[in-house]
Write a structure and sequence with these properties.
The chain is 52% helix and 11% strand. The protein is α+β, with helices and mostly antiparallel strands and 394 residues long.
Length: 394
């Protein structure tokens, strides 16, 4: 399975996309992450099987589910395109849909069959099929809260970016994993002794969003990349055939950009920041201050020259969802307790937070002094608005 072209292609996809433009060492690939997620998922599954043997039919059931979770974690990222989410925004096809198509390829079918697992079960875990027969494994593969995918990438991304706040007590978290029956369904949760480790896990994700995933330089160049990709792929449907999609990776995109003459392609090649950061509003729940700054910037510089970056749409997984059953269940004295009730820290971080950044376009061809003056004016506009709201800061 490892030698199949679909899997080897992951070597040519960066795990963090354009984050290397802000963190020079963030060059690691989705292939190394896939192997790490497989290893982490194996550790987590073995812990669940050791302490929750009663939840498995027999030894054959344990062996099958172990093979299944390993296969799903190895393949969970195969549907990603070049630079991941920036690519999806241009092609309008989510990587889960690509994964489903890739698993139907003859060589992939043969590889999965050789692992002695069902391809339908593998896909169900990857896409998070709520009605699948293995809900506990679904949590390990696609989350939303205790997935091995996240356990690996947080540590890996923290290491390669040098952001120490992204680390957490993974050994204690894995050791605390348990299987429970709740409302007639098997769920994955933790023992009460793992609450502190869970808190470190939640904080690690929170800090990595603040420090890395939503870093203003990364977000700025992802916006520029989308413009370049639209020039590179004027007809996004040309990549709909799966064979054509597989021909593209990060390196081919960067190579083809050298043949484009547009502003965006040049900016990516030379790391030219077309936009400058005017203000940030991180983890804000009240958007009135942000909206006031955006309106003032648009009035001064023109709507076409102001870019409002909004990321709340991806925050439903940070850290434990809001409402419903998207939580972690904690065994506290024989009773299952919502982690948001078991931990004040987790409870306070739950729910939707809004991560907003305001950028102003600057002319890279103008003198540096003029660019700096423009950005000082933009930041001063926002600072003056913030100053009128006591207790607020950008």
């Amino acid at each position: 399975m490892l030698d199949l072209p679909v899997v080897q292609r992951l070597r040519r996809l960066r795990q963090l996309g354009l984050a290397y433009l802000a963190f020079p060492s963030a060059e690691h690939s989705r292939f190394t992450h896939a192997l790490g997620a497989l290893a982490m998922g194996t550790r987590a599954f073995d812990q669940l099987a050791r302490v929750g043997r009663e939840f498995f039919a027999d030894d054959r059931d344990v062996a099958y589910q172990r093979r299944l979770v390993r296969a799903a974690l190895l393949l969970h990222d195969i549907g990603h395109g070049p630079f991941s989410h920036a690519c999806e925004a241009v092609l309008h096809v989510r990587h889960e849909a690509r994964t489903a198509e890739l698993l139907q390829l003859p060589d992939m079918q043969a590889g999965i069959e050789a692992l002695d697992v069902d391809a339908g079960d593998v896909l169900g875990l990857i896409v998070g099929d709520a009605g699948g027969p293995y809900p506990a494994l679904r949590e390990l593969v696609s989350g939303p809260n205790l997935d091995a995918d996240r356990m690996d990438y947080l540590q890996r991304d923290a290491y390669f970016t040098g952001v120490a706040a992204g680390r957490f007590d993974v050994d204690q978290l894995v050791a605390s994993l348990r299987l429970f029956e709740r409302d007639g369904q098997i769920v994955t949760g933790i023992d009460a002794r793992g609450v502190v480790a869970l808190e470190s896990f939640v904080m690690a994700r929170y800090m990595m969003f603040a420090s890395v995933y939503f870093h203003h330089t990364t977000r700025l160049f992802e916006r520029i990349l989308q413009d370049a990709l639209r020039e590179l792929w004027p007809d996004p449907h040309a990549l709909d055939p799966i064979d054509e999609f597989l021909r593209w990776d990060d390196f081919r995109v960067l190579d083809r950009l050298s043949g484009l003459s547009g502003e965006a392609a040049h900016a990516l090649r030379q790391r030219v920041r077309i936009f400058g950061l005017a203000a940030e509003f991180n983890a804000e729940r009240d958007l009135r201050l942000y909206e006031a700054c955006e309106a003032a910037l648009r009035e001064r510089f023109g709507a076409a020259n102001v870019w409002a970056d909004e990321q709340s749409q991806v925050m439903h997984r940070l850290p434990l969802g809001s409402g419903g059953g998207l939580t972690v269940w904690v065994n506290a004295g024989g009773h299952l307790v919502d982690a948001r009730d078991a931990s004040d820290l987790i409870g306070k971080l739950s729910g939707k937070a809004y991560w907003r950044k305001l950028f102003v376009r600057r002319d890279p061809a103008s003198p540096r002094e003029a660019q700096e003056a423009l950005m000082r004016e933009a930041r001063a506009i926002c600072a003056n608005i913030v100053a009128k709201r006591p207790g607020r800061s950008t």
